[in-house]
Amino acid sequence: MTKPAKLIFKGVFLALIKAITNMLIPYLTFKYVSSIVIMGIPIGLTNEQFQVIVFWITALGLVQVSIAFAKGASPRRSPQKAIWSIFEIAVYCLYLWCYKFSGAASLTLNFKYGFVTYDLALLLQLWLGLVSLKLFIAIYDLIDGIYFYNKKHKELKGMEISKKIAAGGVLNE
Amino acid sequence: MNRILKIIMTASFIFSISVLIIQALDYYNYLDLITKYVGYVTIVVDRVINLFRPLLEIIGKPLSNLVTSILNLFAYGDYTFYIGVSFLFIMIAFIMAIKLPGYDDYSQKKKNKNS
C-alpha cells in the first residue's frame, strides 16, 4: 500500500470512530431519554426540543467527522496535523456548546404531574475548560511539527548535495 | 501477511464481537448498565474537576462567551452549509495526503534497525 493510500485509509477509520462516538451514540442516548419510562410514568423530551438537539448533533457532527478524516489523513509529526487538531478542538467546543444552545444542557423532563429541569451549563463550562487545555498540547505539536519538518528538509537537501558530489555533478557544473 | 492488515483484521474482529454482544443483550438494559457505571465514575470525576475548578472556570468563562457569539453565525434548519464545509475539509485533506505524504520517520527508523 502506498503512503497516501495508507493515510487516507487511516483518515476514514478515524472518521468512522468519530461518527460513532459523536453522532450515533448521542443520538441514540437522546432517543432513549425521550422514550424513558420510570415506575410506569412516561418521562420525555418535548418533540421540538428533541428535533433541535438532533439538528445540532448532525450538523456539527458532520463537520467534526470531516475534520477527523483530515487529521487522520495527515502524516505524523506534521504541521498540518497540528493545525487540523486545533480546528478539531474549536469545532468540538462549538459542538459541546450546541448542547446548551439547543437546550440539551437544561433538559426538561415532562412527568404526568409536572416537569423537572436539569441545568448542566456549569458542567459544560468546566468541560470546555478541560478541552481548552488540549489547545496548549496542539500548539506544542504545531511548533514541534514545524521544527521537525525544517530539520528533515535540511537533511534531505544535504543528502541531495552529497549525492551530487559523489556523482560528480557539482564538479561538472 | 502484512502487519497493518493483521492489526486491521484484529481490530475489526474485536469490534464485530462487541457489536454482537450489544445486539445479544437488550439495548436498553445495556444503557442502564452504562448509567450505573457512569454513576460510580462521576464521583471520581467530580473530585478531580473540583480540584482544578478555579483554573478551569477562569479559562472556560471567556471561551464560553466566544463560542456563544460564534454559534450565532451558524444557520439553523439548513444542512447545506455544514455539508459544504465538511466536503471542503475532506477535499483539502485528500489533496494534502497525496501532495504532502510526509517524511515517514517511523518506517525509516525501522528500516535502519533491520539493516
Kindly describe this structure.
The complex is a heterodimer of chains A (173) and B (115). Chain A is mostly helical and 173 residues long. Chain A has one domain. Chain A has 5 helices and 4 strands; from the N terminus they run αββααββαα. In chain A, the strands form 2 sheets. Chain A has a two-stranded antiparallel sheet with strand order 1-2. In chain A, strands 3-4 form a two-stranded antiparallel sheet. With 115 residues, chain B is an all-alpha fold. At the A-B interface, helix 1, helix 2, helix 3 and helix 4 of A face helix 2 and helix 3 of B.
| Number of discrete helical segments of chain A | 5
- The overall pLDDT of chain A, averaged over residues, is 79
Strand tally of chain A is: 4
Give the overall average pLDDT of chain B.
75
In this structure, how is the largest beta sheet of chain B organized?
none
**Strand arrangement across the biggest beta sheet of chain A:** 1-2
**Tally of individual domains of chain B:** 1
Overall SS class of chain B: mainly alpha
Q: List segments of chain B where confidence is low: pLDDT < 50 over at least 5 consecutive residues.
A: none
Number of helices of chain B: 4
Radius of gyration of chain B in whole Å, from Cα? Answer: 23 Å
Quaternary form:
heterodimer
Shape type of chain B:
extended
Strand content of chain A: 5-15%
Which two chains share the most extensive interface?
Answer: A-B, 47 and 44 residues
Distance between the termini of chain B: 21 Å
Helix and strand element order of chain B: HHHH
Strand residue content of chain B: under 5%
Order of helices and strands of chain A: HEEHHEEHH
Supply Rg of chain A.
Answer: 24 Å
Please report the distance between the alpha carbons of the first and last residues of chain A: 38 Å
